[in-house]
Amino acid sequence: MEGVEHRTVKANGINIHVAEKGEGPIILFIHGFPESWYSWRHQIHALALLGYRAVAPDLRGYGDSDAPSDVGSYTCLHVVGDLIGVLDAMGADKVFVVGHDWGAIIAWYLCLFRPDRVKALVNMSEPGQIEIEIAEVGTATALKSIFANRDPSPPCLPKGKAFQDVSGTPIVLPPWLLEEEVNYYVTKFEETGFTGGINYYRNFDRNWELTAPWTGSQIKVPTKFMVGDMDLTYHFAGAKEYIHSGEFNKDVPLLEEVVVMEGVGHFLHEEKADDINKHIHDFFQKF
Questions:
Q1: Active-site annotation holder among 62, 101, 231, 269
Q2: Average of pLDDT values for 187-211?
Q3: How many CB atoms within 10 Å of residue 196?
Q4: Which residues contact 146 (CB under 8 A, 6 or more apart)?
Q5: What's the average model confidence in pLDDT over 77-85?
Q6: Bridge-partner residues for 224, per DSSP?
Q7: Do 235 and 153 touch, CB atoms closer than 8 A?
Q8: Which of 3, 92, 177, 220 meets the CB 3.0–4.6 Å disulfide criterion with 87?
């Protein structure tokens, strides 16, 4: 990708690959599953042109970053520690943060643990729970199935049958995703496997235990939240009620805006890149 610089940063005892572009205030982009820094390619280019330094790491277990073998090395404390290490390596005090899917959860934790390091937050979607048998159908088929999914209902993925409806069936990519872009993800996941990414899910319970001291704490960072109305996570039981009833505001008192994008699915930052770029810029320029 033109103009993007790549480097490896030693952070929290492991090597973290970082892609960056531009000069100015730093925006830290935190990706989700099954993605990498590359999922922010549209935002990196656009926000760099708007006068920001766009910084997008591969989280531990993904892409060109280290992937510890221990499942217990993928807790929220480990991953937030990695990001603080990245910011320290860059000499950054406070930064803007953008998260999506698992990156959104990590962004919430970052704001909860270290609000002193975050100027403002734009968060998008949150992850669905998924344990996939990728080896049976192949990396390319599994990824295409996830990216092409337009069913907003919560997924039902019986063990051993997660992709029974797509195995051997040609998958039509959405218009916002090119074959060559999928191939980048396929290449990286075939190199590293999916174990690191799935280990984030395996630490859900451990994260609850580790964050017990923060029970009832509020996230006190200026925040904008965006989600597509075709995003399956928006249709999880209780999600809409939580977002729109005022409960969300109780947990995030500095929540300034919730944007529900009509006709948009889970990967909104790729599907509606121009709109998302404008939302990010409009919000961050207030600060």
A1: 101
A2: 92
A3: 24
A4: 34
A5: 98
A6: 122, 257
A7: yes
A8: 92
Q: Cα separation of 284 and 97, whole Å? A: 9
Mean pLDDT within 99-112: 96
Handedness of CA 48, 62, 128, 39 (dihedral sign): positive
Reported confidence tier of residue 148, pLDDT bands at 50, 70, 90: confident
Residue of 88, 184, 201, 229 marked active site: 201
Which residue in 17, 45, 100, 266 is the catalytic one? 266
* CA 39 to chain centroid: 9
* Residue 283 in tokens: 């919000």
Catalytic site includes residue 266: yes
Q: Copy the structure tokens of residue 127.
A: 């992850």
Known catalytic residue at 101: yes
pLDDT band (50, 70, 90) for residue 142: confident
How far from 91 is each of 25, 26, 84, 86, 283, CA to CA, in Å?
A: 12, 11, 10, 9, 24
Q: Locate tokens 């017990």: which residue?
A: 212
Question: What confidence tens digit (pLDDT) does each residue in 11-31 have?
Answer: 999 999 999 999 999 999 999
- Cα–chain center distance at 24: 23
